[in-house]
Amino acid sequence: MSQVSGIQFEKDKNGLKRFVRIDLKEHGKEIEPFLQKLNIKNDWQFEEEWQNSLTPEQFKKDMHSRIRKWNKK
């Protein structure tokens, strides 16, 4: 059997393949339906959203802008 990047088989103490380690960054989109079926939250999606979130400084600036708009009404 050939190796696939981002997928590793792990053996138990008896040397039998028992677990599979899957790199979710590489294969997350493909495995997502299976994880959802098991009701497992996809942390890689959280990480992507976290990377695209506002910094505290950006959030503060945005909130000050919104508050100023409210005060003008």
Provide a brief overview of the structure.
With 73 residues, this protein is of the alpha+beta class. It has helices spanning 24-37, 43-51, 56-72; strands at residues 7-11, 17-22. Strand 1 and strand 2 form a beta hairpin.
Question: Your description of this structure?
Answer:
The protein has helices at about 25-35, 45-50, 55-70, and strands at about 5-10, 15-20. By secondary structure, it is α+β, with helices and mostly antiparallel strands. The protein has a two-stranded antiparallel sheet with strand order 1-2. The radius of gyration is 22 Å and the shape is rod-shaped.
H/E topology pattern: EEHHH
Number of helices: 3
What's the N-to-C terminus distance? 68 Å
The total of beta strands comes to: 2
The profile of the biggest β sheet is:
2 strands, antiparallel
Strand order of the largest sheet: 1-2
Overall mean pLDDT: 85
What level of helicity do the residues show?
40-55%
Assign an overall shape.
rod-shaped
Over all CA atoms, what is the radius of gyration? Answer: 22 Å
- What class, by secondary structure content? alpha+beta
* Poorly predicted residue ranges: none
What share of residues are in beta strands?
15-25%
Key phrases:
single chain; 73 residues; alpha+beta; two-stranded antiparallel sheet; 2 strands
SSE topology sketch:
Elements: E1 7-11, E2 17-22, H1 24-37, H2 43-51, H3 56-72
Antiparallel strand pairs: 1-2
